Amino acid sequence: MQIYGITGWKNSGKTTLTERLVQEISSRGITVSTIKHAHHSVDVDQPGKDSFRHRAAGAGEVILASAFRWALMHELKGEVEPTVAQLLAKLSPVDIVLIEGFKRNDHAKIEASIKPDRPLIALNDPSIKAVAGGYDLPDLDVPVLDINNIPEIADFILKEVGLA
After folding, report:
1. Residue 41 has pLDDT above 70, yes or no
2. What is the CA radius of gyration of the chain?
3. Are 89 and 26 in contact (CB under 8 A)?
4. Rounded to two decimals, what is the model's pTM?
5. What residues contact 160, with CB distance under 8 A and at least 6 apart?
6. Are 127 and 40 contacting, i.e. CB atoms less than 8 angstroms apart?
């Protein structure tokens, strides 16, 4: 399983870029999954629903299943946040996993930047292999790609991981 990251500051276009890359890459017949990092408390469940009640009662894990999808919710209960490697081990095999966020990890990444409101991470991070920008970017030591040219960005990533 190959991995590649999409990173950037908050509101930099990461999620839109990831979504569009998943569509592009999967349309080429390449299987893709994603891991999304959140810095805030996230809950896929809703108060009052049965699965929420199970967790509130103390269940360490709850699987919510239907004929269309299933989700495993694991309560950390004070445990350390899992690493990227631990999360990858939980996924079924695919050709590539796109990892949104986790900017401090050392896996290869592309930085999304739709506006010049924060310094580019790429200036000080060798794990950033390209910047996908939505404005005139300064000269960089890595390729600069148009954030709206999704086929070009997909080509870049797939070549990087040997799936081109």
Report:
1. no
2. 18
3. no
4. 0.91
5. 4, 108, 129
6. no
